Amino acid sequence: MRTPTLPPATHTNVYVCGEAELAVIDPASPYAEEQVALDAFLLGLSGQRVSMIVLSHHHVDHVSGANHLAARLSVPIWAHPETKARLEGRVKIDHELDEGNRISLGAHTLDVLHTPGHAPGHICFADRTSGTLIVGDMVASVGTIIVEPEDGGDMRAYLQSLERLRQQKARCLLPAHGDPIDDPDAHLSFYIAHRLEREARVLAALALNPQSLDELVAPVYPDVASALYPLAKRSLFAHLIKLVGDERAYRDGDKFSIAR
User: What is the total count of domains within the chain?
Assistant: First the structure.
């Protein structure tokens, strides 16, 4: 579905899971024509019914069609408690989901994995029968993922969640942005290595002299166009917070320095 997401993505994938009984994961679009198209698809299914809407996390490009679809189909919305708190006053969450819960769709079951980092209430869904993981914004096959501290992002938690997903040994990842990922281990390993490489660049830059967030963007993101620096700074700040927490760097006002 076309959504107000971040570049290079332009759309968010909506997953319809189950057999006779269905869950719709991340009805994402605020645009009327996109909502009408999803309505038509779901109402046109024969011998199948939607019993719930499930949200992977609170970001606008994942939840903006939830109220409309819930009212259209008279079904409840499910999400993690952290997501519920962040959507207070915008989307009414009827039921909470957390680590270890199972979404039962008749003969079909999805295991819920709490995977914070990109968002505090981020959850993924494991279909053990097919070996498929619906991973929301943990990874993408288009671009990379922003970790934004001012919106609850946590780089340490994100790296831990990526490793946890890698240990699931899935056969396929279904991301919110882009095509299915048929080599989960390689893709998740790349994401972990990519973040650790950025972290190493931060430390190398700080080893030269104390620097501000703005000063660090260019040396840490030499492969990113300057027009995208505002987006890069969000994840850069998450890296810096992690390094300060790890006591590998420290902050003095608007400057960061390497720990000696």
Answer: 2
| pLDDT at residue 123 in the model | 98
Tokens of 63: 């939840």
Q: Is residue 47 part of a domain?
A: yes
- 99 in the same domain as 49: yes
Strands 77-79 and 95-96: parallel
User: For residue 198, what are its two tokens?
Assistant: 């950025």
Average pLDDT of 177-195? 97
What CATH number is attached to the domain comprising 139? 3.60.15.10
* Same domain assignment for residues 64 and 129: yes
Question: pTM higher than 0.85 for the full model?
Answer: yes
Burial letters 148-173, b for 16+ CB under 10 A, else e: bbeebbbbbbbbebbebbbebebeeb
Tokens of 105: 């769709």
**For residue 116, is the peptide bond before it cis, meaning its omega torsion is within 30 degrees of 0?**
no
Q: Are residue 223 and residue 110 in the same domain, yes or no?
A: no
The pair of structure tokens assigned to 245 is 């927490």
Strands of 211-212's sheet, edge to edge?
Answer: 211-212, 255-258, 249-252
Indicate whether 62 and 158 sit together in one domain: yes
- Summarised one tens digit per residue, pLDDT across range 17-50 is 998 999 999 999 999 999 999 999 999 999 999 9
Q: C-alpha dihedral over 51, 57, 59, 64, to 10 degrees?
A: 0
Residues, the chain: 260
